[in-house]
Amino acid sequence: MFGRADFSIPTRGPRGCLIRSASSDDLSSILVVERRCYDRPWSRDQFRAELEASHARLDICLCGGQLAGYHCWWLLCGELHVLNLATAPDHRRRGVAAALLAAAFDQAQKSGLERALLEVRAGNAGAIALYRRFGFRVTGCRAHYYPDGEDALLMEWEIQGARDAGRGTRTSDNR
Ligand SMILES: CC(C)(COP(=O)(O)OP(=O)(O)OC[C@H]1O[C@@H](n2cnc3c(N)ncnc32)[C@H](O)[C@@H]1OP(=O)(O)O)[C@@H](O)C(=O)NCCC(=O)NCCS
User: Fold this and answer.
1) Any atom of ligand 1 within 6 Å of the Cβ of 61
2) Which of the ends of the chain has fewer CB neighbours closer than 10 A, N or C?
3) Which residue ranges form the domains of the chain, and what is each CATH number?
4) 92 Cα distance to chain centroid
């Protein structure tokens, strides 16, 4: 299990921005950005539940003292799950989301990361491009997954060793 005490993320974001773990004091600013980013935003209670869960992380990126972005993710059994990654509209395309993802990968890799998983709206070209840059591949599609009927793409990242081990297992299973 990935304990909260094990966690100390890099403090550098893009161009001097700061990345750190969120606390309950950050929830109001996070909610402002969340509501600007999503038609169906998470509630304060949802964020609070993630803050309290031992397997969950909620990181924020501060630029010039303002909340530029946040990333909620889980690490469970060597799998990093990207749950919610968002950048405030006026801070986009400056590397905020990439820095938040990189910080999560850095931390997860210290704790035996083997795979990373996420779901993304099929029409969210910007997010898909970001995840591809990190080496995620589309591995599936859930038709009409979202309440408005849009499909979800499943994307996965695997370290090479885990990928090779998986292939080996499948080969021996087939014999
Ligand atoms: C998707 C999102 C998180 C990207 O945040 P961001 O901080 O602007 O992303 P970054 O600046 O770190 O982008 C890194 C790279 O990802 C890709 N990328 C990011 N946004 C993109 C866009 N709109 N179009 C195309 N490529 C994009 C690019 O390769 C970019 O590098 P570049 O700017 O050098 O070309 C942001 O647009 C957002 O919050 N969207 C609304 C919420 C959302 O959809 N979250 C993802 C849910 S799965």
Assistant:
1) no
2) C
3) 1-113 (3.40.630.30), 114-175 (3.40.630.30)
4) 16
CA distance 143 to 28: 34
113-171 per-position pLDDT tens digit: 999 999 999 999 999 999 999 999 999 999 999 999 999 999 999 987 655 654 544 33
Atom of ligand 1 nearest to the CA of 101: 12
98 pocket-lining for ligand 1 (C-beta < 6 Å) = yes
Enzyme catalytic residues: 119, 131
Indicate if ligand 1 lies below 6 Å from the C-beta of 102. Answer: no
* Residue 115, amino acid: R
What would the pLDDT profile of 59-94 be if each residue is shown by its tens digit? 999 999 999 999 999 999 999 999 999 999 999 999
